[in-house]
Amino acid sequence: MHGADPRLVLGLHRSRHHRDILTAALDLGVTALDTAAPYLGFRSHAVLAETAADLLRQFALSTKVGFFPGAGGAEHSLDAVRLRAAIERAARELGREPDTVLLHNPERSLAGMSPAEGHAFLGSACTALVDAARDGLCRTWGVSSWDTRPLGMAGVEGLPSPDVLMVRAGFLVGREVLDTTAVLRNVWQAGETWGMSPFGGGNGKVWEDFDPRPFLRPPRDGLSRVQAAFRTAFHLPDAAAVAVGTDNPGHLAQLVQALGAEVDTTAVSEYLRVLHGHRQN
């Protein structure tokens, strides 16, 4: 249960992929690691295998596919054949099968499609991941979406239900994205929801102007605004785990400490009520 056992996932977006942050995570009891094929200039998988092959077996490892090297940088595709090849390549480069493979930001392709076309392409992409899990290339599969609104437009009715739905979480997520995520969760019946980017891309000044500590139940002495923002992100939306990127072991230790805090869910409900009230006015 996420309320009793919230999980921190160490994300490698923008990470330097140094071994020390992985060992620090394990020392702190953080045993979930999230990366993606395009991270570190499409070198994330290979660098992890080169620098920390002995550590990777100690993590529940998730990765993402959907972006591919292109002439102008990264290009996105929902082509089932390309996705299958990317999953197979990820396992080779990592030296092990990932525990979870996520379809990476499908909205990047869906945004240019009609709802009917998007529904068909999304279904084909999801089926490719279902088949990969069936064939032992991963244990579970899911979808990671930065902006869930195009998925809502395409519709997910009748599509395979993902084991994981990974979405933006926290106070900096807009109400429209939160609303669409809630609909997707209800219709798609994903096994778990994971949050990501609880600090909105690292904009620290936000927490100088806004204090989220009142969203935690007492006692909350000694907890920082950043710790409170992270802990509350597990309820915006409700999530079993939240991925956060850092190369600083001290910052990671602070986030682990924040997991012990209890969120005032009544305050979160009031926040959401006010958020929706602003939309209606």
Task: Kindly describe this structure.
This protein is of the alpha/beta class and 281 residues long. It has a single domain (7-280), classed as TIM Barrel (Alpha-Beta Barrel), CATH 3.20.20.100. Helices cover 44% and strands 17% of the residues. The protein has twelve helices and ten strands. The chain has helices at residues 19-27, 39-42, 44-56, 80-94, 107-110, 115-134, 149-154, 175-188, 206-209, 225-232, 249-258, 265-280; strands at 7-11, 32-34, 60-65, 67-70, 73-76, 100-104, 140-145, 164-168, 192-196, 241-245. The strands form two sheets. It has an eight-stranded parallel barrel with strand order 1-2-3-6-7-8-9-10, surrounded by four helices. It has a two-stranded antiparallel sheet with strand order 4-5. Helix 7 links the parallel strand 7 and strand 8 (164-168). Helix 4 packs parallel to helix 6 and helix 10 (225-232) crosses helix 11 (249-258). The longest helix is centred in the middle third of the chain and has 20 residues, at 115-134. The radius of gyration is 19 Å and the shape is globular. The two termini are 36 Å apart. The mean pLDDT is 94.
